[in-house]
Amino acid sequence: MKTAEQILMKESLEKDEIIYLLSTQDKAERNLLLETAGRIRKEYVGRNVYLRGLIELSNICRKNCLYCGIRKDNKKVERYTLDDRQVIDTVRQALDSGFGSIVLQSGERTDKNFTSRVARLVRQIKEISGGKLGITLSCGEQAPETYREWFEAGAHRYLLRVETSSEELYYKWHPNDRVHEYSNRLISLEALKKTGYQVGTGVMIGAPYQGIETLAEDLLLFKELDIDMIGMGPYIPHEDTPVFDPEEDLPSPAERLELTLRMIALLRIIMKDVNIAAATALDVLAPSGRVMALLAGANVFMPNLTPGENAKKYALYRDKPYFEGLVSSAMEKVDEKIEPAGLKIVYDKWGDSPHFTRRVVIN
Ligand code: 5AD
Ligand code: SF4
């Protein structure tokens, strides 16, 4: 087997080499992995950290993902939907705080009331920001016509996590029925790309039954799908979900944090010019989890702007952080921590994925 140093000098990495770098217990090798990712990041996407303001439109969801706190059958969740005024107020706050881009995220609904409302909100956000705000949607699997309607309204990026590259594992994490079809995930990602979106996907890390080999395959899948943006976060157990099992042999929180950082670093090395988000779930595992992700190669930071009383109800996992207070002071704190590494938060920029720009120019 090659050493980390030899592997990291290669043009492209094989599965067993990725597995080696995900699992090496040698501190110097681990540090070399993160340093290499940091160098590649500066070379291919620069020093900038782009901002997205996250607005969680509604926690109503038609799906029953077995790990998720807001799954349809969790009767303990108080359901909410932001009204137009709440959305628009939050958008104005994002604009005033210097956000160049927002993400409108929601539990999955496919009814016409919902899909038309999202289109209308996108148009409204475009209008009130004078086209200044980039708009990303994250509203699950939809019909190709819906993706097109939202794109034509002005959304230009879409996030849909594939959750795992293993179909077998997918059905351990989801009911095996018509609403949860692995093939439809992949079909949806393809439809999004065809429509013209910058496409984002991602996986959970350290979740039940997963294993390192699947994580290596996840990274190779992102490459195969030629994805523009990736968000990967650690799995955080939620006690009101079917996969929650206190006896389950999960990687420890520290191991899940470490695995996520290595996955980010490896992805930066493998795909180089993609946008990588520092997932919110990291902050559950360490006070500066997201900052650690930025230092490991992520270049997108996504503060949650959902009005406080609702953000608490969008509890995908236990202890999900929500924000109370001044967004600007939270960002100053992040800036202070990333500055020694030569990174900085940039304001008022869309911060598109350079990978997308290249992908579109080439095709
Ligand atoms: N832990 C971590 N991430 C989760 N998600 C859902 N439930 C959990 C959990 N328990 C993630 C999924 C989903 C995204 C919106 O949140 O990856 O795609
Ligand atoms: Fe719904 Fe997303 Fe949770 Fe699945 S992960 S239940 S689609 S909110």
Helix-strand topology string: HHHEEHEHEHEHHEEHEHEHHEHHEH
User: How far apart, in Å, are the first and last alpha carbons?
Assistant: 38 Å
Count, helices: 15
- Would you tell me the overall average pLDDT? 94
SSE layout and pairings?
Blueprint: H1 4-8, H2 15-23, H3 27-44, E1 48-51, E2 53-58, H4 84-96, E3 101-106, H5 112-128, E4 134-138, H6 144-153, E5 157-159, H7 167-173, H8 182-195, E6 198-201, E7 204-205, H9 212-225, E8 229-234, H10 253-271, E9 275-278, H11 282-285, H12 289-295, E10 300-301, H13 308-311, H14 327-338, E11 344-346, H15 354-362
Parallel strand pairs: 1-10, 1-11, 2-3, 3-4, 4-5, 5-6, 6-8, 7-8, 8-9, 9-10
Helix pairs in contact: 2-9, 2-10, 3-10, 4-5, 5-6, 6-8, 9-10
Quick rundown:
The protein is α/β, with parallel strands linked by helices.
Describe this structure in words.
The chain is an alpha/beta fold and 363 residues long. The protein has 15 helices and 11 strands. Strands 1, 2, 3, 4, 5, 6, 7, 8, 9, 10 and 11 form an 11-stranded parallel β-sheet that branches. Helix 9 (212-225) links the parallel strand 7 (204-205) and strand 8. Bound molecules: 5'-deoxyadenosine (5AD) and iron/sulfur cluster. Iron/sulfur cluster is lined by residues 61, 63, 65, 68, 70-71, 107-108, 140, 316.
